[in-house]
Every structure is written in C-alpha cells, then in structure tokens.
Amino acid sequence: MTAVVAATNFVTVSNASKEAFKTASLVKTLSVNVLIYGARGTGKKTLARYILPQAEIVDASSFDELMTTISTTNEIIISNIENLGNLNLLIDYAKKSGIKIVATCKRDNYQELLDKLFSLRILLPSLSDRPEDIEILIDRFVNEANTEFNNNFILDRKGFMPDLSENAISLKKQIYTHILLNNIDETSLMSCIEVFLADKLGTNNDYRNNLHIYEVPLIRAGLLKFKSQLKLADRLGLNRNTLRKKISENRKYGL
Predict the structure, then answer these.
(1) Distance between CA 20 and CA 34 in Å, rounded?
(2) Are strands 4-5 and 34-37 parallel, antiparallel or unpaired?
(3) Does the pTM of the predicted model rise above 0.70?
C-alpha cells in the first residue's frame, strides 16, 4: 500500500485521499480546469501542485497579480478562489485564452459560475474523516521536526490527541511544539517567557496579572505527577488551602 506519493508528498492511505489522487492523475494530462475544495490544511495545494507541477500559485485576493500572471502563461494554480472579486472576468479570459486552471477553495460556492469554469471538482475531506492519513502525517512531521532540530525524538502515541482543528496545519504545529518543548532547557524556556512578556508589561499590576504563567504549569505538572492536592501542597511547601485557592483562581486555564 502506497502511503505517500513521492512526487508530491500527498498522502494516499484513506479511501478518500486515494480517490482524490486517482482523479488528479487522470486529469494531469488533460486540458480541463479543476476545482479542489476542502477545509484549511486538507492538502489542496499539494494535490494542485501534483496536477500542475510547474505552474505558478497565485492567491485570488491578489487580483492584479493574478491577471498579470494568467496573461503570460498557459497554466496556473489559483488558491482561495472564493476570494476572487470578479469571477466573471476570469471565466471570460479562460474561455478566450484556453489557459488551464487548477483552483482551490475552502467552500464550493458560486455553484453556477464555477460550473462555467471548472469541468471537474475534487473534494478533500477533513482529516477527522480520513483517520488512516493521520498516522502517516504524524510520522512525517515527527521525522521532519527531528531533522530540523537534530533530534531522535520518538513520539509516545499513548495519550497523544492530534490537534485537527486546522487539519495538517494544526497537527504539524502541535508536533513541532511538542518535540521542541520536550527538548528545551531551562535557559531557553526562560528566554521564551522573556520574549512573551516583553510587550505585555507596563502597569502596576503586572506581577499579579502574569503570575498564572508560572503557577498554572507548575500546579498542572504537580497534579499530574503526584495525583493529589495534599501531596502537591507538601512538595511545594504550601498550605493546602492556599493551593486550593490558587487552583480555584486559575480554573479558566484548565486547572
């Protein structure tokens, strides 16, 4: 079973991604315009690049750049076509010039207008509907992060909950952050906090207003390790009621 298409890195494990790639392969050599739609981070640009590997990618919101580009080429990838202000103008130009267009969008809007421009649509479902692809993407992002950070980190899948809020985008960010945090030293951690706080200081209550940044992770880690408020209070040298008060004050941060 092919997990990743070498030419594009488009994951093809789930039935949905296999069908999408199969359709993309069929139209790769045909003179038809294709619309690829789906939520952010589902692989639309990757699949578009597979169909038109040499084409320039232009965001539809950059209308002047878009019109300049299509006047000098015979193929183009248009991202976020739902942001195009004048779709009729693009339709007219495409009919006259014969340019091949592969476009991406988050929503399949403008049904009637898009029918005039695109002969074929490819839906890429969210990763939550393609669980087989998630495992391959996790492995890929872990390998990428290890290469970037020069690590040999092995992700413990037990208890790991993939962040699929923005599909592959949020998943990659989650894994990179997870690996980075598991390899950060005290000096680097303090530097991160310093940068974070640099533009947030300036009032008389700065100490109290930012105390949760230190207290919440300390309490959270302690509860996870000791499984008991009584034991944690003892380890921290706090009165149990004081610890309870701090937990209550920081409920909004997940304590």
Answers:
(1) 12
(2) unpaired
(3) yes
C-alpha to C-alpha distance for 207 and 197, rounded to whole angstroms: 11
Give the model confidence (pLDDT) of 211-225 as tens digits: 999 999 999 999 999
The DSSP secondary structure of 60-91, one letter per residue, reads: TT-HHHHHHHHTS-SEEEEE-GGG-S-HHHHH
Residue 94 corresponds to which tokens in the numbers above?
């495409």
Residues 6+ apart with CB under 8 A from 12: 2, 3, 4, 5, 18, 21
- DSSP β-ladder status, 120-123 and 100-105: unpaired
With contact defined as beta carbons under 8 Å apart, do 141 and 179 qualify? no
> In the chain, where are the structural domains located?
4-125, 131-253
- Please state the rounded mean pLDDT for residues 158-171: 93
HSE at residue 133, side-chain half, CA atoms within 13 A, is: 26
Let me know: does 69 contact 56? Beta carbons within 8 Å: yes
Q: Where are the alpha helices (H) located in 83-167, listed in sequence order?
A: 87-97, 111-117, 131-149
What's the CATH fold of domain 4-125? Rossmann fold (3.40.50)
How far is Cα 123 from Cα 107, in angstroms, rounded to an integer? 10
